[in-house]
Amino acid sequence: MKSLVIRYISAFVLRGTVVSFMVLAPGMAAAATGPEEHSTSDPAMSSMMDPDQLLLSSRVFLGRLPAAMPGSQNDTPERIALGKRLYFERGISTHKNQACHDCHLLTEGRAGTDHTPTSKGTIGEFGKRNSPTVINAGFQFAQFWDGRSPDLVDQAKGPVLNPIEMGMKTPMEVMDRLRGIEGYAEAFQRAFPNDPQPMTYDNMAVAIAAFERTLIAPGRFDKYLAGEEDAITEQEKMGLMAFMDHGCVDCHTGVTVGGQLYRKIGVRHALAGNEDVGRYEVTKNEEDRFVFKVPMLRNITRTGPYFHDGKIPTLSGAVHLMGQLQLGLELHPGDTADLVAFLGTLEGNPPPVQE
Ligand code: HEC
Ligand code: HEC
Fold it and tell me: Catalytic: 165?
């Protein structure tokens, strides 16, 4: 009989401290299960799902998106308005053909990405990584697939000067371009009223980050966490349970369901054909070879293709591969379908943005 009674969640990371503990479903005897036996599609399993326990674990290990992002204390409407204009500004790319919004689309259904494996930049060359979503991004502990940037402000200084992305040569060249476009001098003034020299590259990044911090998008999952049990379906709950039981949550943890720690891709089996060494490039530590930021899974149903190289076209493919590579599990197709259903509850729209 398939009994899955131990919810063992190791390596839960809370403010950098690793805590391990066990959640034991009440009234059930502890029994070990072989990895291949996990299947939440089994009708026997649903009777074992303790709804209170599931909700409690979800609140502890995942959690609702807060109403405001860290660092947003000084985000005035003027600063956000400037940041939004800059986010759509193609004038700050070499050939005036590329803005943040060209790779991180906020039009309906685009969910902050460009839906291509890797993105084409201002000179028509492709980068090596898939563009992640900007929606909810500021809740993560670091930015970029390899975490090389600590926050949104620092991150925003990168793409403009990246030779493949927007391709500008120096911060000065960027500011000269902006000075030449009507309205920016006044907009910087309004956004940074106490600054004697408001038109700086750093302030540009601060304003873009202020705009990005408005891109908060809770979903049905947050309603469920708030106590609306019916906000997610039975199948989605099965998927949520599978997410906990299989240990997806060990890595994809916190309110963004990921984006809170670094892990190797290929814990059990290497990712075939992968040459991107990830965090090793940043730290040059041998143990960081193939280590990436565990991506957040908020809006994951809408941000394909998947993985850092965008080589996995479907979400069920990505989930199946996760089982194999990270957990040494051959997920049952029903299990994969449940997991994908659960991930759908993480869809959410930020407040509408018009250019
Ligand atoms: C040519 C396409 C392109 C343009 C233009 C671009 N980005 Fe990106 N963006 C990417 C790619 C690709 C990555 C991932 C790169 C990596 O991790 O090495 C990324 C990463 C990010 C991240 C990190 C998200 C995360 O979860 O780690 C943020 C935030 C972001 N971009 C915002 C911006 C902003 C703001 C601008 C404009 C100033 C911008 N991007 C311009 C393609 C682009
Ligand atoms: C040991 C840590 C770990 C575990 C366990 C794990 N993941 Fe991941 N997951 C990662 C890392 C790291 C990546 C980034 C892989 C890459 O891009 O190369 C990732 C990527 C993903 C992606 C693609 C995200 C994107 O933006 O392209 C999905 C979906 C995903 N995981 C779902 C799951 C599910 C479902 C489970 C459980 C069956 C799971 N993961 C278990 C670490 C983990």
Answer: yes
Query: pTM above 0.85?
Result: yes
Per the residue annotation, which of 36, 108, 125, 165 is the catalytic one? 165
For residue 48, the model assigns a pLDDT of 58
266 in the Ramachandran plot: left (φ > 0), alpha (ψ -120 to 50) or beta?
Answer: left
Range of the domain at 325: 6-65+217-344
Ligand 1: atom nearest CA of 87 is 37
Dist. CA 66 → ligand 1 center (Å): 23
Are the beta carbons of 291 and 263 closer than 8 angstroms? Answer: yes
| Number of domains composing the chain | 2
| Any atom of ligand 1 within 6 Å of the Cβ of 158 | no
- Of 212, 247, 264, which residue constitutes the final position of a domain? 212
Ligand nearest to the CA of 145: 1
Q: Is 84 exposed, middle or buried (0-12, 13-18, 19+ CB in 10 A)?
A: buried
Tell me, using a 6 A CB cutoff, whether residue 308 lines ligand 2: yes
How far is the C-alpha of 252 from the C-alpha of 297, rounded, in Å?
7
Residues 224-250: what's their mean pLDDT? 96
| Tens digit of each residue's pLDDT (9 = 90 or more) over 274-318 | 989 999 999 999 999 999 999 999 999 999 999 999 999 999 999
- Ligand 2 center from residue 12 Cα (angstroms): 16
